[in-house]
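Section 5: illustrative case.
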């Protein structure tokens, strides 16, 4: 028998407890041992809930109990999660987590401690919810040099963009729906401003390239400026708007970007809708591989957390090696990266002449809106395009700028 504890009884934590109970027999068989949930840590009381029999408000009950060998941290946030997880690992307890903030910031250090202690620090649920992607990167794609990862890594924003595009719903009401469904972060700014996707691409890049990709070095834009008009234009040119997170290795440097992109309807990620996420990985031997599934929500995420618990139980006393050194990866500025922009400006007598003067030839996109002009630039380096947008802003009102990959 292996004794475990769960830290946090919110959306994911209650899902973990539910999955452990629902699939108890098959989980125990696959783990090769009976799994016993002894503690659940949370701040709150849960009225008329059988969880109360296992509830504690004091982490020390868990850390000081030698019976506990595996802990699932599903509280979220960096502190006190980091302190609790580090203490647990140093006491020889394996930890699994869904907490991407924690993993993006301290993953390399926590993996190192787990290796030294001959235990495990696993975080499958931290990226892509229920999609297996961490384990494939660590174990299945090891023959390859991975050189690019592009993904839809945030369920909340994909849900919002899909509902805006397909049902014409407004941003705020769909965000509220995503919160009610348990997809959004406690502070949904992390979702809609792209920070959550940024942390996830930092985690994937660090594992794929073996060095620490600092999320603070990643250019990040969210979806808050995307309007219903942008959706109309996107359809007009055969595109969907998706929040994409990309990282690419060129020689010994990496560039990484999180931003809303207009992608062609034939792009492999364009049909990934709602809360679904997908991750497209390019390796120098395997070619292209894509992973797809529910990227957020109680049970899909709990599925990944429980799979990590099973793995931790199967590997008691053996460290599963991950390649993520603390050494910082050299990052390339996105100024050097080629891009094409879709730009909308307010229409007046001079706007056409101003656009032509700054950008030369552009592809005008017709929409029927009389009060604005929209166009797509030729491909140029980001840095040069940014300079031109600045010049445009001096002479006219720029309504929105979105990258285009088509
Ligand atoms: P919730 O806010 O629903 O649950 C967290 C729970 O932990 C709450 O009950 C909270 O209590 C409790 N908690 C937080 N801090 C402490 C503390 N210091 N001591 C005791 N209890 C504490 O979050 P989620 O379940 O949605 O998410 C958990 C983690 O999983 C986050 O890192 C999130 O990013 C990640 N994740 C979430 C997914 C999802 O779909 N929801 C998917 C993938 C990952 P209180 O409410 O009182 O603060
Ligand atoms: N808030 C996150 C999302 C949860 O919407 O993708 C899953 O990590």
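Designed sequence:
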């Amino acid at each position: 028998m292996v004794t475990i504890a769960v830290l946090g009884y919110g959306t994911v934590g209650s899902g973990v407890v539910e999955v452990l109970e629902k699939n108890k027999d098959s989980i125990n068989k696959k783990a090769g041992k009976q799994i016993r949930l002894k503690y659940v840590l949370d701040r709150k009381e849960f009225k008329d809930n059988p969880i109360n029999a296992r509830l504690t408000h004091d982490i020390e009950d868990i850390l000081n109990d030698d019976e506990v060998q595996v802990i699932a941290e599903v509280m979220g946030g960096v502190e006190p999660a980091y302190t609790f997880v580090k203490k647990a690992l140093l006491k020889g307890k394996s930890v699994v987590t869904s907490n991407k903030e924690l993993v993006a910031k301290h993953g390399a250090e926590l993996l190192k401690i787990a290796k030294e202690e001959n235990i495990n620090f696993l975080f499958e649920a931290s990226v892509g919810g229920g999609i297996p992607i961490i384990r494939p990167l660590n174990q299945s794609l090891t023959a390859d040099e991975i050189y690019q990862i592009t993904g839809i890594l945030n369920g909340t924003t994909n849900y919002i963009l899909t509902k805006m595009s397909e049902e014409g719903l407004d941003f705020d009401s769909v965000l509220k729906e995503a919160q009610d469904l348990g997809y959004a972060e406690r502070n949904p700014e992390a979702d809609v401003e792209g920070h959550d996707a940024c942390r996830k691409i930092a985690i994937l890049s660090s594992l794929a390239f073996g060095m620490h990709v600092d999320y603070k070095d990643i250019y990040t834009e969210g979806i808050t400026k995307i309007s219903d008009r942008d959706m109309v234009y996107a359809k007009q040119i055969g595109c969907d708007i998706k929040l994409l997170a990309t990282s690419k290795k060129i020689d010994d440097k990496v560039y990484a970007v999180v931003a809303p992109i207009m992608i062609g309807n034939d792009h492999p990620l364009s049909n990934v809708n709602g809360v679904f996420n997908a991750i497209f990985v390019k390796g120098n031997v395997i070619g292209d591989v894509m992973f797809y599934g529910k990227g957020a929500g109680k049970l899909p995420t709990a599925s990944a957390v429980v799979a990590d618990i099973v793995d931790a139980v199967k590997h008691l006393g053996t460290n599963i090696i991950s390649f993520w050194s603390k050494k910082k990866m050299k990052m390339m500025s996105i100024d050097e990266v080629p891009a094409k922009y879709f730009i909308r400006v307010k229409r007046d007598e001079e706007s056409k002449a101003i656009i032509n003067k700054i950008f030369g030839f552009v592809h005008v996109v017709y929409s029927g809106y009389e009060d604005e002009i929209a166009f797509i630039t030729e491909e140029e380096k980001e840095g040069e395009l940014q300079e031109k947008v600045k010049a445009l802003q001096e002479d006219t009102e720029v309504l929105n700028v979105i990258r285009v990959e088509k």
